[in-house]
Amino acid sequence: MPDLSHVEQASALRAALERYNHAYYVLDTPTVPDAEYDRLFRQLQSLEAEYPELQTPDSPTQRVGGKPLPAFGQVAHAVPMLSLNNAFSLDDVVAFDRRCREGLEKIAIDYACEPKFDGLAIRLHYADGLLVQGATRGDGTIGEDVTQNLRTVRNIPLRLVGKDIPSQLDVRGEVVMLRADFAALNARQRARGEKEFVNPRNAAAGSLRQLDAKVTAQRPLYFFAYGVGDATAFSPVGLLHGAPQEYLLRGVLPAPSSDGLLNQAAGNAEPPLDRTFHSELMDRLAGWGFTVAVERSVMRGAAGLAAYYAEMAAARAQLPYDIDGVVYKVNDLVDQMQLGFVSRAPRFAIAHKFPAEEVLTTVEAIEVQVGRTGALTPVARLAPVFVGGVTVTNATLHNEAEAQRKDVRVGDTVSVRRAGDVIPEVVAVVLEKRPLSTEGSNESLYPPFILPKQCPVCGSAVEKLEDEAIARCTGGLFCPAQRKQALLHFASRRAIDIDGLGEKIVEQLVDNALVKTPADLYRMDLASLANLQRMAEKSATNILAAIEKSKHTTLARFIFALGIRNVGEATAKDLARYFGNLHALMRASEDQLQQVPDVGPVVAASIARFFAERHNIEVIEQLRAAGVHWTEGESSAAAVMPLAGKTFVLTGTLPTLSRETAKEMIEAQGGKVTGSVSSKTDYVVAGEDAGSKLIKAQELGVTLLNENQLKELLAQ
Q1: Roughly how many angstroms between the first and final C-alpha of the chain, as a whole number?
Q2: pTM of this prediction?
Q3: What are the catalytic residues (predicted)?
């Protein structure tokens, strides 16, 4: 057993090593030589090896990684890790500033401006100042638990320092690899004769997702904090001096007073507190030991944002890390709360992307791809070229009109970019490099591109409606290309959800004529699946089990899984709530379909056309006969359900119901839940610590309900 001197020695070594770590990795001002750091590190290692009870979770020795993990567990984010809407031009930025000013009724707004790191977004959770969990962003709701790997990132504090540290804290940020470290890593890869990494972002993401944390520990990763998620231990006063924007929006905030400032609690007589800003929150993070971007700034109005953008664009090449744009956030946290969110992005923030890189290459062929809905898309097959951090061999030409407008032909030299740094596209043709039929001639060697009249996959006729730019194959499920995409969509997680039925398996099922329609999936047997390439009996058994499990679903999922054109997940839910059962939906006229919220003439026509096709009805009947089922509900039409067409807003914390539960109860009765109060809002359901939404509802005379009153209304 260690005695008191050993305990004190270990504590002193840990404190010293963390100070040196902070000075080296965060402040970039080393205070001791590497040899001295290594000596103290080995001393602590020896002490902990001799007395394992001295080892603590925040010990610097724990950054080296443990045993390889068999797989990453899933982590649900308490507050979703939302994405940002993008701006690609100054006009987009001006429009964003105008929306914010109009939403807040202000003449000018201050914005916190930051570089947009090109790395991997992660969340760090601290309890009583100690790092207890780290996760990737994932889909924004569910991420991967990579705690063990994140402990190896040297500039992530294992224990926070400083004052006023909340008992529970979620920190949001980006794991990157600095350019110099990336170059050194690739040099080591070359020296070992191993594959080099494509770009710093891929290297960082791949390093962080290693199952063996010891591998991650050997990679030079770096973490930048850019915000906070949830901090449940913040008091109202604490909230006003560093509250995270997402947490404010959950309603845990003192009520505004008549002069627009916040009181410590609703209805008290305390004087108003000062407002708090995102820029101050970043200062607090730096004080607790996190690395934050030194290039951040606070700018006023669209002109200030434009100036910051120009400054960062000029400095981009000299930065030690990669960025693909800048981020603007309304600096005032209370103003952020008032602006709220739209869909899966905040209204108070936007990412201003830099123009994509452009390079020259040649067009080797132009092919036509057929999508799930039959859309024909011309695609240029390119001589491989490195652009935007990846090697590009294909680029979209969007549609026939766009291909002809740019006059892209085989053999042309073209400028290629990754639109939004994501989708490769042909920008323009370099006409002076176009190959000619004969020397001295002005005629091109290759003819202009013309979209085929028959589908290149199945030979069915191609049609283009007058109001559309896209031509489509009329083959439907008869077309193998549409069949593959339709099956993948049908089996996707948000549709019927057949786990394990991926692209490679679907391709084999269609190519081998084993599956023609989604109903055929439910006729599959073990022998047919097990005979597929790279498919063992165990894997086939798992897929059959997933197919069997998928038979029990919901009407909304089933409607979405059918792949009706223009019917997304939200519309499928609206249709299921309104009609209550599939038979009522299938026999509805276009006029009846337009009675559903957010269903207009175009969507109604798509639905009607789908159910008018006999082969679609046959597939549905086969699916039902195969055992696909759900619980039928009642129609939510106004004559049956009184909440149909009613709009609700939830604010504050309800005594017994979570917001998600309350939302589901309202939607089950035909109501609609939105995130902002307007003159069209019918009810505002207010709980404890309700914020500005409650005040706006009172100003507009919207009916207010508490939890009990909501339950009484639902009971009707």
Answers
A1: 68
A2: 0.53
A3: 116
